[in-house]
Amino acid sequence: MSQDASRQSYAASTVIALHCSLGSGNQWARLSEELAATHQVIAPDISGYGNNPGAFDLPTTLSEEVSLLRDRLGEAVGPIHLVGHSYGGALAFKIATDSSLASRVRSLTLIEPVLPTILRENGPDRPLYEHFVRLAHAVSEDLWNGLASDAIDKFLVFWKGSEAKEDVSPKARLRMMEHADKLAFDFTAVLAEQNVTRAAAAIRAPTLLASGGLSPYLTQRILWRLTSAIPEVRTRHVPSAGHMLPVSHPDAINPDIVRHISRADELANLPLLPGEMPAEADAS
After folding, report:
1. What angle do CA 19, 25, 26 make, to 5 degrees?
2. Beta strand pairing call for 207-212 and 14-18
3. Which secondary-structure segment (H or E) carries 249?
4. Is residue 218 part of a domain?
5. 3-class DSSP assignment, residue 110
6. Dist CA 195 CA 197 (whole Å)
7. More confident residue, 281 or 171
8. For residue 264, is it within any domain?
9. What is the pLDDT of residues 182-239, one digit of tens each?
10. CB of 143 closer than 8 Å to CB of 151
11. Which of 273, 270, 266, 243 is nearest to 88 (CA)?
């Protein structure tokens, strides 16, 4: 393959970046800037967040959430590099394991994806899963009772893990209050996901799993279980970071994401040996 053809192929792949609950596509502004010279980047607002109020009936499964993203996925040129954090990581995982979409996925980056049901599949981790279920019920009950502020407090305390507790700015808290009702739907969606280990074992895209050392232990166990299941996987651990590491530590994690995407593009553009199938075609 000529150098010009290789450059054209690099430009013809797209990064889809999916944000966490209570966030927006703006979460990926820094990463988008770092990739802008080489890739189209699409960082949509997930339903119920940012400037996307969603439909009257918000999604209650990851499959329904992915269906709402299909128009944005359709804007992607060529193969897709998926990057997802937290709830967005669960959505990226769902896209990568969807039989109608997996063949387009060139690489996958998951930053502490919220896939708690994988812990239900393993006896020693089941108490962590049950703790998450109790959190989901408590937050959802507060929301149903009109206690959005209490729900947000419970949500933030859990995801802070062992990080030092910091006050959320009034502006940020107001923004969270505006979108808090979606949390109950997000919890319902991730708790409805089944057979996560089996789905992970079927992933053929090179995968980067990232975590923070100060995050809740539940996220560490989810990452460990995924690492054991996904065939082609690399890990990146940032000891000084918490669950919000793509926002709090972009200098630590973004270079790894960019490098992971570049390597996947490079591998996809290697000359094929006789009888070999392209990676994306083989994944289908």
Report:
1. 115
2. unpaired
3. none
4. yes
5. strand
6. 6
7. 171
8. yes
9. 999 999 999 999 999 999 999 999 999 999 999 999 999 999 999 999 999 999 999 9
10. yes
11. 243
CATH code: domain of residue 211: 3.40.50.1820
The CA radius of gyration of the chain, in Å to the nearest whole number, is 19
* Residue 277 belongs to a domain: no
Question: At which residue do the structure tokens 């969807």 appear?
Answer: 98
* Assigned domain for 284 exists: no
The SS3 assignment for 108 reads strand
Query: How many domains does one find in the chain?
Result: 1
Structure tokens at 24: 């927006």
283: left (phi over 0), alpha (psi -120 to 50) or beta: alpha
Phi, psi (5° rounding) for residue 212? Answer: -110, 145
CA distance 259 to 262: 5
Say if residue 151's pLDDT is above 90: yes
Per mean pLDDT, which range of 100-114, 144-158, 262-276 is the poorest? 262-276
Contacts of 34 (CB under 8 A, 6+ apart): 254, 258
Q: How many CB atoms lie within 10 A of CB 276?
A: 11
pLDDT for 8 equals 41
Identity of residue 223: L
Q: Which residues contact 254 (CB under 8 A, 6 or more apart)?
A: 30, 31, 34, 246
DSSP string, 216-239: -HHHHHHHHHHHHH-SSEEEEEET
Burial label, 154 (beta-carbon count in 10 A; 0-12, 13-18, 19+): middle
Residue 50 is part of which domain span? Answer: 3-270
Tokens of 159: 């995801």
Phi-psi region of 36 (alpha: psi -120 to 50; beta: other; left: phi over 0): alpha
Q: The dihedral of CA 77, 210, 265, 204: what is its sign?
A: negative
Q: Is 181 exposed, middle or buried (0-12, 13-18, 19+ CB in 10 A)?
A: middle
Contact 248, 214 (CB under 8 A): no
